[in-house]
Amino acid sequence: MEKLINSMSKIGVIPVIKIEDAKDAVPLANALKKGGICAAEVTFRTAAAADAIKEIATNFPDFLIAAGTVLTPKQADQAIEAGASLIVTPGFNPIVVNHCLEKGYPIIPGVCTPGEIENAMSFGLRYLKFFPAEAMGGVKTIKAVSAPYSMIRFMPTGGINKNNLADYLSCKSVFACGGSFMVPSDLISAGKFDEIEKLTFEAAKLVKEIRE
Fold it and tell me: What is the CATH number of the domain that holds 168?
């Protein structure tokens, strides 16, 4: 898990992808890689998720692939079997968390309250997704909850964009952010991968500037 977290931290912002057709997975991953980000969170918000993960894992073995919006143990199994490196959930579901831990799947569950953070801690977890970040108060809230939970590190997702990315990555409790601003669904569906490459390059450049 620590190796995955270190990799995600170095990348800084993980593209959160909603992909409708698995045929778009390879050109999309290629655009991300050429743009400077060898990672993606492929969300299980469409039926193509598992196939998309498999396509990326097969063609880009150096890619860090997270399976996002995982709501059930079955989806977690499908994601790992397809080649995902870790599981990311939008909320804290003890059934899914326990299943992943028993199977040895790295998991970053979603939280947004102190109670959920403590539930995660009871499972021995310290890397958590803070979701929905902006709607729940953003950096201000993360800093507030980090006071009593200084051992926890967060991956805020939800409302992250190029204008507020610096605020999040400058927070010592944040190890990385999840964002879809460089991978808009309309550009994916339209096959405009050159534009995605440009947006990804800009995002990677921004992360570098923030951390210099």
Answer: 3.20.20.70
